[in-house]
Amino acid sequence: MSGPRRLAAPPAGFGVDLDGAEPASFRFGGRNYTGCYGDTLASGLLAAGVSVWSASPRLGRPRGLMGLAIDDAALLALGGDSGAWSAAAADEIVLREAMSARRAAPAGADAATLTGGRALLPAARRLLETLRRSLPLPAPRLAPPRPLPPARRDACDVVVIGAGLAGLAAAAAARAAGLDVRVVEASRRAGGVADLFGGRIEGLSLKAWADAQAAALGDLLVANATAIAIGADGAVTVIERTDASRPSEVALRVISAGAVVLATGSRERPLIFADNDRPGVLLSCAARALLRRQAIAPGERVVVATTSDDGYRTAVDLKQAGVTVELVLDARENPQGAAVDLAKAQGLPLSLFSVVTGVDHDPARGGLVGVRAQNRFGEGVSAGARTLAADALIVSGGFTPRDELARRCGLGEAQGVFVAAGPDAARAVAEGWAAGTAAASRLGAEVNTAAPEVSATSDEPDDGVAGYLERLDPAFADAAFVDIGADVTAADVFAAAEAGALGPEALARRLGLGGGLDGGRLSADLPARLFATIGAGRPPAPSPGRPTLGLLAARAGLRNA
Fold first, then answer.
1. Of 323, 329, 326, whose CA–CA distance to 291 is shortest?
2. Taking the model in full, what pTM does it have?
3. Where are the alpha helices (DSSP H) in 264-309?
4. Is residue 529 within 8 Å of residue 498, measured between CB atoms?
5. Over the stretch 442-475, which tens digit does the pLDDT of each residue have?
6. For the chain, how long is the longest CA-to-CA vector?
7. Cystine design at 42: which of 91, 130, 396, 440 (Cβ 3.0–4.6 Å)?
């Protein structure tokens, strides 16, 4: 099954999730489309050439896929489903025959609710969203009350949060010590992004090893389950999605354990420049996942902007898939990683010390038509300012730990909470195994098995994000987003600081950071980077997930039982 973005003849290793002989029809926004079995809703829409999925909550700007899975901000909802947890990442929704989907409403009383469903001009939408964030406005039309979600207690020796390589290694170590383990994974698939990286563990590919570990766990692995809190007693509150066809159907589980391992991995950081939220701007791992899993190309002529080695991996994949890579822009001075060497060997065009300053967007097409770039340090003619023709921009600002649970719970090893946050396969497995071993030791158990043997290259340290902040033109700061999901720009941050919002907590509240459907996760630590430039301290961590009143009531019911 082909489409405008589907590779007509995918090379080996591309489109591995697809059954191209089996079409699956679906509806989005009142129109009919056809994808393939093995597509997600995200890849099905992109294959059909649909790049604009929703509008931003405050400014009404067009939005589409940018991040991978649970970190994306352009969430969708399935037909007939409603409720606080109905919004789901399109990459997490597996396409099936006769599926119907729509854009997800913003959290709280959104503009459509406040106006009886009538469309609003961007200025009115912005005003209503600003009021919603600053005032306790009730929705004039209340949804009928929903029954309390099912809730239950669970207990084990060790609970591992995250089923990437680090989490699976931690679980393997704890089980090797004879302990009872639960593994909680927010995504529908274990292994994280293991299929997007090279390397081997115990002679197996990263994905094959992850699949084997997940199979060994069986029902001890709880997928589609988000850990939203760790109590002072170490109990982990988990929200499980129980019906793939209705993401709003959730159940609550409270897991009490002697030790907790936080192996929540890392998220890729966007870059900050004018119009960095436009459809067609895509994070590197998300672009590579679409290529390898569903044979979806992000565009026909692509620019890659990176401050890390990961951008080169995606550039190599794009070239192998037959996509034209106009230029790789690296903000670093002299990158030397293995991925960089491979890109050079394949003749990919490269410009060092270079950053993106903005993109040109065609509203009629709903996509990009150009990428503006210049040298990081030059001025005037030496800046080398130029516009590159492109219909997609792949960005990679490096990786930052998903540390929101660790920061919010405030617990450490003395309280039985261990963190495994390796930035690459080798260190992820090593730190995961070490965390599982430490958890076992806390419970008086011993791990007598050696850690898995890993063969994988390590990346050079991420660098160059500061170059984007240095090159941010104040004249365009009102279109440079630091919290994409909540429509917060660099200009908003500067204005709030000048207005006297002192301290990171007060400044974050004034801005509404984390107020989007993604809870601030897509933008990673961009707010922290910008806060640091104005001496505002560190903003609060993104939200791991928002409990509803029903979930809180169910949790209270367990406590009182």
1. 323
2. 0.92
3. 284-294
4. no
5. 999 999 999 999 999 888 888 778 889 888 989 9
6. 72
7. 91
